[in-house]
Please model this.
Amino acid sequence: MVHDKAHELAAELKNSQEYRDYLAAKAKVEQNQELTAALNDYQGKQFELQRRQMLGEESGADMMGQMQSLYAILARDPLAAEYLQAQMRFAMMVNDVYGILAEVVKI
Model:
């Protein structure tokens, strides 16, 4: 029963407007190799910053500055901005689902 509900939730997420918007923006971005490389670089740095924060390591002002500069450059490109916004909306929806589960299931 729980597995069935999990599969239903997965199908709902997959069919959500947020996910469809994300996939559409991602498909557009993938047609531009330079933009794809820039976004991959940004996301790699973002992941590294999050990893450092989770481990309690010093992130460094220079890394934060790099992230802000790179984001500002990317946000000027309408396609990159569309992709980043779509990705953020989908991530927020998934995070909300995790939050709901965390409220109910306390381990």
User: Anything to note?
Assistant: The longest helix spans residues 78-104. The chain has a mean pLDDT of 91.
